[in-house]
Please model this.
Amino acid sequence: MNDPGRDRQSTVAERIQLHFDSLTGAEKRAARALTTDYPVTGMDTVQRFAERASVSPATIVRFVKSLGFDSFREFQESLRTELKERQESVLTQATSTNPHEANTGATGALEESKRVFLEGIEKTLGSVPSGEYIRTVEWLADTKRRIVTAGGTFSGLLAEHLAAQLSLFRGNVLVSPQSALHRASLVLDSRAKNDVWVLFDFRRYQSSTELLAQEVDQRGARLVLVTDRWLSPIASIADVVLIASVDAPGPSDSLVPGLALVEAIAEQVSERIGEQGIAKLEQLDPMRVRLEFGSGAG
Model:
């Protein structure tokens, strides 16, 4: 059973992810329509929202209530709040921090970090739609596909970590370089529908990542997006959207829950690949040791 209190603290996008598996077919169409042009579609009238989703106005009302809102007006108020949060800069977050709340001493600060990070991990892993998660794992475990990961200034760390973890058990895994020239070459070498691109894009969404997503999408590759609760613009074209909590005790958004999601996906992929992955690791690891420490290592 879903926690109503948790819903009240979540964005509309997070609520969709949390409730998606229990929505009716028509409500899922409403959810996809909203995600495709988030949050603009939700800011329109019920009638126009319904037209975009090809459902009835009554379905939109039921959809909003399925997400835990008492009314369409409350639903739109939540979206307006999100718009403000979405546009906050790191400087805005830093200067809005209450110094009296922050000044809790080293021990208190550590406990607060522990609480926030653990809650973020639980929120992230506890609300991933099972269908989206399974689809992602199946695509990444398909060794006939080429996997490419990409991210921004900070989220690029998650892209690199996912690629490293997958490379232990399967081949043909690449990290997209930051160079526009090298990225263009990588996209042109794409084998279209055989490629799966996993993109990481969080608040202060980078236009370079969005442009990359558009190029990849035009060539028919599968696109998995890992983003935050305000949804990267890439969500409008992604095949799968996974939301990671970015709550942090300080002014910067956190990558900790996102890293937990990456680890969970990688573990499931390795299990799905099975003995073939173990055989790859048995050859890979001794070579890695030789290259890192020299022929005499071990």
Q: What stands out?
A: The mean pLDDT is 89.
